[in-house]
Amino acid sequence: MLRPPLVNNSDPTHISLSSIEADNAYRKGIQMLTECKNPSLGDPEALKLLASAANSGHTKAREAIAMASALAWGGLQLSINKALDDFQRLASEGNPRGQLGLGLMNAAGIGVNASVPQALVYLTFAAFGGDEIAEMSMGYRYLAGIGVEPNCETALAYYRRVASRVAEQVENRVKAGAGPILMGPTVVRINLLEEREQTAGGTSGTALSNYFISDDILAYYKFVADSDNVTAQVTLGQLYYNGQHGIDLNHKLALFYFKRAAESGSSLAMAYLGEMYLVGSPDVPKDEALALSYLQRAASAGNPMALTGLGLAYLHGRAGLTPDPVKAMDYFVKAADQGWPEAQLQLGLLFMGTLGFKADYKMALKYFTLASQQGNTLAFYNLGQMHATGMGVFRSCSTATELFKNVAERGRWSQLLTSAYLEYWSGNHEVALIQYLALAELGYEVAQSNVALILEEEKFDFIPDLERYKRAFVYWKRSASQGSSTSRVKLGDYHFYGLGTEVNYDQAIQEYRIASDVLRNAQAMFNLGYMHEHGLGFKRDIHLAKRFYDMAASTSTDAQIPAALALAKLSFSFALEFFRKCPLFRNFFGSFSGLSEGAELPGVSGKMDWDFYAIPILAGLLSLLVVYLRLAR
């Protein structure tokens, strides 16, 4: 991935700016980076603005440059030493973001020797200073017991503060007059190991290629839309309106395509037009009368987005309408019955007893749950509040913490997941690792799994080779503790082979059993079958081995062929075992081999492993079967 050259902050041509000029430069630079299609690539002009502001002593700009240097974010080249120096200067001034940077570097062992106690000190002070990322990291540490005793209530307090800020950012759209699109920020969580298994080798970023729309596909949509295809017109309108899937936000083009679709009778396009005119933007002047007209036309066709938009208009008295909560609820019910998550959220809020409605916590819980099932951020937040306070449900610290953690992980920092994935598939594995490491220390499970995989497969200058498997083991363990079945199997593998830890069959069995019994992982079932078959950690038992191989085959279609081969080999071993116990066979076999009475048969004593013969024979038979089936067609 090509990058702009690193900005030289010591360039004497840089002119010191006044405090107002520096602040303006910082704000403009951040805005330019925010509007980038791929913030990881950044914008050279934005970097110049930030560097100028930083050189003039602007604290926020200094923080941004330090963080960008540490993460190769915004187009800056990776510079661990520079980032470490910048963070140390900021921290010496009592700056929370500087303390956060040092905390993460000590936690992950980037630029310094890894030190959990030192990381904890820096992160604690940063969290006390109000740094929300540090608060998130501390919440995870108290939840998982990293460097501290596990404490659910403390974890809840940290996550709750971060979640409230994320929820506030989403709610600001409502206060600004925005309508039904309140799903919250899109978080792209892609597990590299699972993606590789699903794509049989993983030679390209398959998962993200489904998320980002290529130029060819975009051109095709435009071609079809120009042929008056309403679906394509609405799709293009949505892409440009939301600025998602790698498409730059462009309200002019969104308005163009929505209008064309609306002229063809699309109620969804009318609903979007209603929202655009109701909210207004630099490209689309606010027009409440026109907005109301579009919303009413779409609502009359039963469109749930328009019904929700009208409900919000009546609820808050927008577009010249007199506030009418009862009428608003009627619209929300109609939209919620169609599964529209924003309407479900609004009903949940009303049933909490707002705006004069009688509180019905059971109904509120129902609608918040329905909305959360479609990923609505505010629904997760309100569910967290209910479980944290015991409002309408039995109070549950663990449930509330997990819900607030979910909301916190939808903050703006979640964009780094997409950036790290792009860096990985662009070949910048060192940058990807560092970005994933930062996220892993914040508690993102998928980042922990990806860090472990990258450490397992590659060497890096800033990580001693002898520590790679030890560190990978730590992150597999953290990921597994958050419910990842693939990480749980990996943890068992590390105990089985002695990677990053001592060989321990009993511990491997325990990890495989959790993955098998609780998480229904076919690989874990297969591994347990293998250990039963060969007497590793168990007394050898081919009957139990067969049971686990059968379970693996029935759990996953991908496991059917390996399980079939294993079962065939097991049958071969069973036959040998049967004949070994047969006196007639033993006498016959002994007469040809010269074995004396009491001698061991090959493949039974373990001195000669029949696997070396059975597997090639079975593989050959399977190949012949495949060839035969193809010829039979």
UniProtKB/TrEMBL annotation:
Domain of life (superkingdom): Eukaryota
Ranges that cross the membrane: 612-631
Classification via InterPro entries: Sel1-like, Sel1_AlgK, TPR-like_helical_dom_sf
SMART domains linked to this entry: SEL1
A family per Pfam: Sel1
Any Gene Ontology biological process: ERAD pathway
Listed GO CC annotations: endoplasmic reticulum membrane
Signal sequence region: none
Alphabetical UniProt keywords: Membrane, Transmembrane, Transmembrane helix
Family: Belongs to the sel-1 family.
Name recorded for this polypeptide: ANK_REP_REGION domain-containing protein
